[in-house]
Amino acid sequence: MGDAADEETEGGYGGLSPELLAERDATVVALAERALAVRRLLLLWGIAAVAVLGWAAVGLAVRSIEDGGLGLLSGLVALVLAALLLVPAAVALGLWVRRNQDVRDRLDAWAYLGPEPVTDERVRAHGRSVLWLLPSVALCLAGTAVAGRAVTRVDVVTLSATVYALGFGGTLLMTGLLGLVRSAGHQCWAGRLLDPVPARRGGGAHR
Q1: Which of 85, 121, 154, 169 gives 20 to 30 Å between its CA and that of 145?
Q2: Non-local CB neighbours of 124 within 8 Å, separated by 6+ positions
Q3: 15: pLDDT confidence band, cut at 50, 70 and 90?
Q4: Nearest CA to 39 among 110, 103, 86?
Q5: What is the pTM for the complete model shown?
């Protein structure tokens, strides 16, 4: 029986020691703040800016090729430049998403380490979530407007302008969606983690 109890404790089903419990709570709060760190948001925007430059190069390439003559050569150069911008941006975005998932996995591992619930409201990171949410919504709206306008005006603008507008609007929309999902996803996760815990009354302090 003793061995079985020890195995349950080591597997996360038994009670945590006060020291490990305190470390668990502190780590979850720190990881929650890290998940919504401002530098991660700025990095996402930086990747988007590189992608926008790449789409500008694509638009330039299309216009140069349309012009014909020596424009074909400049168009090929512009396409190479576009690839040098868009490919690294795509790779960086993939790494960004993977890194965020790693942080989320660590949050889950620590939050559900033992049966004792996490009650520290700081894991919600409301301020950081709002900081991610508001500009992300704005980017979604701007991206949708730009892409929608490009589609509706396809008959009256050049092909190069349409290609750039679609790439620009799509980049803004995707960037906004990633930030929106990150913010809303964290709030949903924190809600599931904290809601089962009865709200404390009478000004009781959280751990």
Answers
A1: 85
A2: 32, 186, 187, 190, 191, 194
A3: low
A4: 103
A5: 0.81
**Contact (Cβ atoms closer than 8 angstroms) between residue 134 and residue 176:** no
Q: What is the Cα 20 distance to its own chain's centre?
A: 30
**Concatenated DSSP letters for 107-133?**
HHHHHTSSSSPP--GGGG-HHHHHHHH
Q: Residue 122 and residue 107: Cα distance in Å, rounded?
A: 13
The single residue listed with the structure tokens 């700081």 is 122
Structural tokens at position 55: 């789409």
Question: Can you tell me the distance from the alpha carbon of 76 to that of 193, in angstroms, rounded to the nearest whole number?
Answer: 53
Average pLDDT of the segment spanning 175-183 = 96
Q: Which of 49, 59, 48, 63 is nearest to 81 (CA)?
A: 59
CA-wise closest residue to 193 among 15, 47, 25: 25
Buried b / exposed e along 133-169 (16+ C-beta atoms within 10 A): bebbeebbebbeebbeebeeeeeeeeebbbbbbbbbb
Distance, first Cα to last Cα, the chain: 33
